[in-house]
Design goal:
The chain is mainly alpha-helical. It has 13 helices and no strands. It has one domain: MetI-like (MetI-like fold, Orthogonal Bundle). It is a multi-pass membrane protein.
């Protein structure tokens, strides 16, 4: 009887996870397995490595390289700007009247992507955007003459920063709040300057969190498909757009090559997420 009660209690503890497990299995694990299997299939259903070998072409390699560059630069800038904002908010004595709205906005903006984000940037700083036209008519400043083009690599990087910076703020703020006052007081007693404290104490402790978050931001940008397609269309050769072109059903498309492209993206984002998890666990040991 006691054993049955223990089994029932154990089952009840897992009931709450059933919707999450079902959702993950249907919309994450099953599609991933379908992509991986499709990457090694011919259109007739046979097994082949040709789809993987076909990735070694100049167009596809260039698309991967541009995607990696965009993801890395947006992650790097997102980390630098987001860390500065989070440090100013956490350690700079900013009141909760500013901190609370900023954290709320960060939570919303970190999930704001896709067509709405692309439209917002096109309407604001696009070729005929509000700010673009205002600068041209009121001040005679033609951003295009200075080399600015929203539908370019740097335009995509700046667009990605809209959700990269808030995500950095959300993740790094708990790590900054975990810095103990005793560490700063001990550094002051030993005669360390503010710069020495950050260089020798704070940054070494925060470095795993910063590096891990940068890996997460990289994966976040590398897998952003809807924003890139809605913003640049086919004008920019990056992996998500090339993937979309292969699987959308055109007669020139090759769905199995698209699966191989997606398989390569899964490997890259999986490696980035693994780095994030490992570094996060290491950072948590320091901040306990």
């Amino acid at each position: 009887m006691a054993q049955q009660s223990a089994i029932v209690a154990q089952a009840q503890r897992w009931v709450g996870l059933v919707p999450f497990i079902a959702f993950t299995g249907l919309f994450l694990i099953a599609p991933t397995l379908f992509i991986v299997i499709g990457a090694f299939r011919t259109p007739q259903g046979g097994f082949t490595f040709q789809n993987i070998l076909d990735l070694n072409t100049p167009t596809i390699l260039s698309a991967y390289w541009v995607s990696i560059k965009v993801s890395f630069l947006s992650a790097l800038l997102g980390c630098l700007i987001g860390f500065a904002m989070a440090a100013a908010m956490t350690l700079g004595g900013i009141s909760n009247r500013v901190k609370s709205p900023l954290m709320t906005f960060s939570g919303v903006a970190s999930n704001f992507a896709g067509v709405p984000l692309a439209f917002a940037f096109i309407a604001t700083i696009g070729p005929a955007g509000l700010i673009t036209m205002y600068l041209r008519t009121e001040f005679g400043i033609n951003l295009r003459m200075y080399g600015w083009n929203l539908l370019s690599t740097w335009g995509l990087i700046i667009t990605y920063l809209f959700f990269q910076i808030p995500l950095m703020i959300l993740i790094i703020t708990p790590a900054l709040e975990g810095l103990k006052k005793e560490w700063r007081e001990a550094a002051d007693i030993l005669g360390a300057t503010r710069l020495q404290y950050w260089r020798m104490v704070a940054l070494p402790i925060l470095f795993p969190s910063i590096l891990g978050t940068m890996a997460l931001l990289f994966a976040n940008a590398f897998g952003a498909v809807a924003t890139a397609i809605a913003l640049t269309g086919p004008s920019l050769n990056i992996a998500p757009i090339l993937l979309y072109a292969q699987i959308r059903g055109d007669v020139l498309g090759n769905p199995n090559l698209g699966y191989a492209l997606a398989f390569g993206m899964i490997i890259i984002t999986g490696a980035a997420n693994t780095i994030y998890i490992v570094l996060r666990l290491r950072a948590e040991r320091w901040l306990k």
